[in-house]
Amino acid sequence: MKLKFLITFLLATAVSLAGCQQSSETSGMAARSIPTFRVDPNWPQVPANWRLGEVSSIDIDADGNAWLLHRPWTLPADEADMAAPQVLGFDAEGNFLDAWGGPGDGYEWPQREHGIHIDHQGFVWLGGNNCPAQNEPGLEPIADDQVLKFTLEGEFVMQIGQSNSSLGNADTVNLHEPADAVVHPPTNELFVADGYGNHRVAVFDADTGVFKRMWGAFGNTPEDNDQCPFATLDSVPDGPGPPQFSIVHAIRISDDGLVYVADRENRRVQVFTLEGEYLNQIIYGDAPFARNLALSSDPEQQFLYVGGGEGTMVFDRETLDLLTTVVTDLGDAHHIQTDSQGNLYIAATGDGHLRLLFTGLSSTGSEQ
Length: 368
What we know:
By secondary structure, this protein is mainly beta. The chain has a single domain (40-286, 345-364), classed as Neuraminidase (6 Propeller). The protein is built from no helices and 26 strands. The strands form 6 sheets. The protein has a 6-stranded antiparallel sheet, with no helix packed on it. It has a 4-stranded antiparallel sheet with strand order 3-26-25-24, with no helix packed on it. A 4-stranded antiparallel sheet has the order 4-5-6-7, with no helix packed on it. It is globular. The two termini are 22 Å apart.
């Protein structure tokens, strides 16, 4: 199906990243409330003596501080000596707070930094997605088969899995190039989007790292299909899609216990129970879709944000209807997140990073 976007407004700033526009499908749709945004041109305020490489992921702690994960090895040679540490924190106004990261004693730092998550207890979870056959300059030929747990101050707590050790999707000890992770507070379980080498959701106890369960697309048993270099698709066929995940790129859990999984190359978001029972999916085959995921911060979490098409697509979480698309110069981006104020944070790797300030709800559509 083809997405038909009607541009309803354009928000711009004087910076080069500026464009932020909202488009919506209105044909046959009753009037609905949709979130609106404007670009924050002053965020974040990186110390002048540091440079950021590709920002791959952003998450927000309980105090509203944003923590960025970036890839220093992607900086040009003439800026390599100015590389900031891999993890940087900024307060709600964008002021610099702290920075840390990189190899250390007792753990294996990922070669290719990919996802960051701050859990309800203030622990930081990090993962990487390096596959040796990519042969990326500056990286060792080592597969990232682990996730790491730190305090917000950068003190190492725990590692799940070991680099270069995956035995495939049936492995209950190691991961294989995990893309994202999230802790579900009521059960204190870590749900991992695992990921690039494996094609599954893997669940662990967040205190002990003990494996608990796994599942694949539609709740099926995940099968091995390690595609390294990474597989990318120009299009997908009509229909519900294949019985296995491709790249499991992002994962979020709503407060009412639904697990949302972005199956990036199959261009679909699948919805599960906490135990892995398949419930529903959103699929768009004509354009990139399911690049990333976030949930709105209102009590009902009424909006599901999904990277796709021209930017960030906004869905009604209850009906899974597409309401609008928030378009920026960063396109459909890499990873996204929201904070308690409703602001939207976008990490777009080589294309940049951005904060969109929530400006309220607006109506779209017409009564039919």
